[in-house]
Each structure stands twice: as C-alpha cells, then as structure tokens.
Amino acid sequence: MDFSNQTLVTQFVFLGFSTITHGQIYLILVFLAIYLVTILGNLMIISLILVDSHLHSPMYFFLSHLSCLDVCYSTVTVPKILASLLLQRHSISYNHCFAQMFFLMAFSGSECWLLAIMAYDRYAAICQPLRYSHIMSPHVCMQAAIFIWIWGFLDSSVHTALASKLHFCGDNHIHHIFCDLPPLLKIACGDIYANQITTHIATVFAGLTPFLFIVISYLCILASILRIRCNSGRQKAFSTCSSHMLVVILYFGNGLLNYNQPSSGYSLEIDTLISTMYCIVTPMLNPLIYSLRNKEVKGALRKVLEGIRRI
User: Looking at the domain assignment, is residue 2 inside a domain?
Assistant: First the structure.
C-alpha cells in the first residue's frame, strides 16, 4: 500500500469519555480521589517497609516494588485523563501517546512477573521453611527485582519500536481512555502481522507464563497447608497468602478482560469501564488490601501513628 498521499497523523483523540456530556465535574472528582488514595496508600506502604525493621523481609521487599509499580502505573494514565476532562480536550500528541504506551506496557509487564515472584516467595516460606533464608536470600531478591524491571522495559521497547513503524491513514480516533497497543493496532493501516505475532509471544511470556507459575506455586502451597494438622497452623499459613491471592485475582482478572476481548470487541462504555478497573482502580486497591488484611502492616502503621501522637 502506498502511504505517500496519506494524511500525517500528529495527534490522537480519545473517545472513551466522549459519550459523557453531563456531570464531568463529578468524574473529575472521582478520578482525583482515586489517584490521591493510590499515591498516598502506596507511599504509606513503601514508607512503613523502610522505617520498620520487622518488615525487612523478602515478602515486604517485593511488596515495596509492587507499590512503586502501582504509583508509576497510575501516574502514567490518571493525570492525563484528569487534564483531558478538565480542559475538555481529549487529544494527545503522537510522541506523548507512544511514550504513554511505552511506560504503561513496561510497568504492566514488570508487575506480572513481580506477582509471580511474590507467589514463589510464599511457596518457599510455607513449603520450604528450613531453606527459606537461603532460597530467598537478599542477593537472590535483588537479582529478582532487577530482572522484573529490566524485563518490563525490554518487552515494552520491542512493542513500541514495532508500533512506531505503523502508518495511520488519517483515522486518529482511539476507542479508549489512554494509549495502549491494542487500540492503536485497530486504527493502523497496512501490515500489522509482526505486531500481532510479537503481541502473542509476549502474552505467553509476560502473561500466561507468570500466571501458570502462580497457579503451580499455590497448588503446592495448598497441598502443604492441607498436611498441617492443627487448624490454627492452617489459618496462619493461609493468612500469609490471602492478600497476595486477592491482588493476583484482581490484576489478572481485569487484565484478561482488558487484553483478551472478543473478536467483535466491547462497546465503548464497557471498554472504558474495564480499562478504568485495570489501570486505575486496581493500583488503588492493592495498598488497601495489604494494609487492611495484614497484621504486620497494621501493627507498623499503629506504631508510626503512636510515635507521631507523642510528638
């Protein structure tokens, strides 16, 4: 196909909130509240882990990385959404769109493997308690953390580099609320075969593989818990996994809906709701889940609040 006479696309227009003509001020307030809770909640988790020595363990080391990813993940999308709603301009420049997509995919890919490593940490703690300190040594934890971040950015670099070669034949309307690869592929003209193949491969390595790793880890954990004879021991072992299990269900469940749409696609309203849940609401819920369901985190928070009260 000859693209020489095609209109050069310099910006994209989001259609996600185009159907909402009234009450946008309430939408702005809701998104602002979600963003503030996300930032403050995750920064609280990171701060508690840094200042409380009782939280200096592999599980909380990885939890601090999860909170950092959630802060970054939310910051990539929400401020732009707030600015668009406030200024009534639902457009984004070509370069900013690709930058948003790059960081969004980088943090998303990193979080998938981080949740898998956190599941392995719980497996080592419950199924291999005598070897836990060796399996999850500080050196191993640091290597795992480096792998998580490098993997996310390498994976995103490949997708972004391939997407930058796409042509957009005048249609710059994205049926979404932020820039992501699937909606960009829908409006691209020309051959997108390489992008689709790369996306399928990445889905296996960045989505399916860590998810299966989590499932296998929890099957081993369940088998180990069932061998514990006393109920209190079972409850204690299960309580150390419940928060992580809930986060995994939320993240991969919303991710499945967001990235594995039916061939006909969702309606614009449903797609907007699913995208909001996946990229905006889930990062807010993670610190709430860990702070409300974790005794050690609640204990650390109480100590900090008591120290502030004494001052």
Answer: no
- Is 4 within a domain? no
Starting at the edge strand found earlier in the chain, the sheet holding 11-14 runs 91-93, 11-14, 173-174
Q: How many domains does the chain have?
A: 1
Note the pLDDT of residue 21.
Answer: 67
Tell me which residue has tokens 């702005």.
Answer: 28
Q: Which residues lie closer than 8 Å to 52 by C-beta, 6 or more apart?
A: 300, 303, 304
Question: At residue 57, what are phi and psi to the nearest 5 degrees?
Answer: -135, 165
pTM: 0.90
CATH code assigned at 218 = 1.20.1070.10
How many whole angstroms separate alpha carbon 148 and alpha carbon 112? 9
pLDDT by residue (tens digit) across 28-62? 999 999 999 999 999 999 999 998 888 899 999 99
Three-state DSSP state, 180: coil
Q: Give the pLDDT confidence of 54-95 residue by residue, as tens digits.
A: 889 999 999 999 999 999 989 999 999 999 888 888 899 999
Per-residue pLDDT of 98-107, as tens digits, reads 999 999 999 9
Range of the domain at 193: 11-310
pLDDT of residue 203 exceeding 90, the answer is no
Determine how many CB atoms are found less than 10 A away from the CB of residue 241.
Answer: 21
263-266: long-range contacts (C-beta < 8 A, 24 or more apart)? 265/175
| Tokens standing for residue 145 | 């953390």
Residue 288 forms part of a structural domain: yes
For the four alpha carbons of 101, 184, 156 and 109, in that order, the dihedral sign comes to positive
Q: What gap in Å lies between CA 46 and CA 34, rounded to an integer?
A: 18
Amino acid identity of residue 178, one-letter, is F
Distance CA 269, CA 203 (A): 25
**How far is the C-alpha of 311 from the C-alpha of 306, rounded, in Å?**
9
The helix/strand/coil state of 181 is helix
